[in-house]
Structure formats: structure tokens, C-alpha cells
Amino acid sequence: MTLNQFKTLYQEQLAPLYPENEIHSILQIVCEDLLNWSRSDFLINDREEMSHLQEEILHKSLRELCTSKPVQYITGKAHFYGHEFVVNPFTLIPRQETEELVHMIIENHKKDTYLNLIDIGTGTGCIGLSLKAAMPSCSMTLMDVSSEALETAQANAARLKTPVKSLQQDVLSLDKLPEQYDVIVSNPPYVRNLEKQEIHDNVLENEPHLALFVEDHDALIFYRKILELAQKSLKKDGVLYFEINQYLPEEMKSLATELGFESQVYKDLNGNYRMMKAQKIEL
Known about the structure:
Layout: H1 3-14, H2 20-34, H3 39-44, H4 52-65, H5 71-75, E1 77-80, E2 83-86, H6 96-109, E3 116-120, H7 126-134, E4 139-144, H8 147-160, E5 165-168, E6 181-186, E7 191-192, H9 201-204, E8 213-214, H10 221-233, E9 234-243, H11 249-258, E10 261-267, E11 273-280
Parallel strand pairs: 3-4, 3-6, 4-5, 6-9, 7-8
Antiparallel strand pairs: 1-2, 9-11, 10-11
Helix pairs in contact: 1-2, 6-7
């Protein structure tokens, strides 16, 4: 079979699950990450006959995709802020919107000579490791409640040659953070159960619910706890960054004010409130 024939096959079988342009992108990811093709290979090789092994890989991937398994869990890789991260069902798949949070932090702190940072709920480590790669003089701690997620983050740190500290800890059970920090960043669980109907099946059926969902009646539980910890553990002039639920920016600002922080919320490229920056109000 040729790549063109596979394009038709993927479109036919995945049409009930994904829009056409997304199916094209999924096949491109499979070819790049599993066949080791470059982007130009994908564009140029569309009429060439594939080897038996290449056909087997594409057929197997298609079978898995038809079960709603995310392509990143099939390839075992995700691309984020110019880096390649190992992903698995113990970790969320890094999102493009989260890259905007990383970029904001780098732009705000690129002139600082040294920073002590902690990434709470690190998952793959995509936030903390991208920050460490961009600001190598900083000290970075990766924290997660899941030992499997933390092992994945450590593997990614080794792959990216970014030395970091790691800490397995349930942030909700902490009375204080282990050090004083210049920057605390977190993308904690924030999707309310009532919002599950908005989530694609490939996320609901595959990605770890522990890292995604919170109870409707206490949707800000992680933010409240991290803000409380930041009261004690954020240095003077230190900054706290969150990825937030797009539907709760006003509730987030009210919570920050209640706990003694000045805050601003920011929209992502899709026009959704997705980021917060907060600093302690100094009396």
C-alpha cells in the first residue's frame, strides 16, 4: 500500500471519531514518530509503496486509534515547547494551551540570574522541564502524587539532560512545601464532573482521571491548597502561576484575593481564560 491509500483508509475508519484535518495530523504523527519519517518525507512519499513492516505499523496503529486510544499513547511520545516527552496512561498528554503558560513564565523571568522553582502536579514534567531547559541556571523541583507519573517525569529529565529534584507527595496533605521558592507553578486537576460531557471520549477513556477531575462542589480545592502553601513558601516578590479552568476565572481571582494575593488572569490563543499569575500582597 502507498501512503495515499493509508490516508484514505484512516479517513474512512476514523471519521466517526475525529474531524478530517485532525485525522491527517494523526497519521502524520504516526509516520513521524513510529516510522521515523521527517515532515518532508510525509509530504513527498505519498505514492511510494511501503515495506511490509511499515504497513504493519500503520495497520496496528489504526486498530488502536479506532478504540479511541490517543495517538500519543500509541507512539509513547508527545511534543511540547520544542521538546519530545515520553507519555503513558499514568500521565496526561501535554496540551498546546499549556505551552502558553510556559512561555509566559520564561518571558517574565528570562532576565533573572537564579530562581528556585517547583512544579506541583508535574505529570510528564513538561512544564518544569521546559522551564529548566530554557533557564538552566534555575533549580527545579518536580512534585506529583503518582509514583508512576514521577518516574515518567524523571525519565524525561534524563532524556532532556535537565537535572532536577523530584518529590512524590500529595499536595493536599502538606502543611508546608519543602523549601522557599521564587516561582511556584501548577496545572492541577480542574475539570468539574459536570464538564465531562465536553471531554472527548479518547480523553475520558484513557487519560488518568486523578489528574483531570475535581468534584463539582469543591472545584478549586487544589488551587486553595497551593495558595495556602504559597503564603508560607513563596519568597518576597515571588510569583505563583496556574493553568486554570476557563469557566472559573472570577472565582479564581476571588479565591486569590481572599488568601492575600494580587492576581491577573490571561486568555490563551483560543480566547479562553487559561492562565493566572499571582503575587502575595505585602503588608
